[in-house]
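User:
Note these C-alpha cells:
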Amino acid sequence: MASIRVEDAARTRSRRHWLERQAEEEASIAGVLVDLAERGHPVVLALRHGRRLRGRVQLVGSDVVALRTPSGQEVLVRSSTVSWITAEPGSPPVRGARALRTRATFAEALRELAAVRPRVTVLTTGGDTLVGVLRGVGTDLAVLRLDGDGGEAYVALYSLAEVSPTASG
C-alpha cells in the first residue's frame, strides 16, 4: 500500500509540473492582462517610450488595453507598446494562458471615444505629445483639432502609444 501511495503522489506531482509548464508555454501578455483585469488589483504597465502607467486594467482587446488610473482617468494603450507588467507587491503570480473575452481593437475604442468628441492627450511611440479634441478616427488615422491655433493633426494610428481624455483647458 505504501508503495502505491508513493507512486500516486509522484504521478500527481509530475502531472502538476507538466500542467504548470504547459500553462507557462501558452502564456501571453494579453493573457496576463486578462488575469490581472479579473483580479482588479493595481498594476504598472511599462511602455516602450519610457512611461509607467499605474492603474487597474478595465479592458483587454486584440490590440488595446484600457487602464483606469488611481485618479480615475481612463487611458487607452496600444498593446504593442507595453514592455512589461507588474502587479502590486504580494499579489499571487498569474499564468497568463487566458483567452481574450473581447476582440475590441484600438481603432474601435478610439472611434467610440471620438463619438463624444472629447479633449484628449495623445502620446506617440516617437515621444510626441498632442493635446486637442478628438474629432474622428479613420481607417488608419485619428484627427485632432489641436489646442492653441486650432489646426488639425492627422495622426497615424500605428504611431499612437496612448490616448487619454483630459479636462478642458
In short: The CA atoms of residues 96 and 155 lie 32 Å apart. The radius of gyration is 21 Å. The helical segments are 2-25, 29-39, 106-114. The chain has a mean pLDDT of 86.
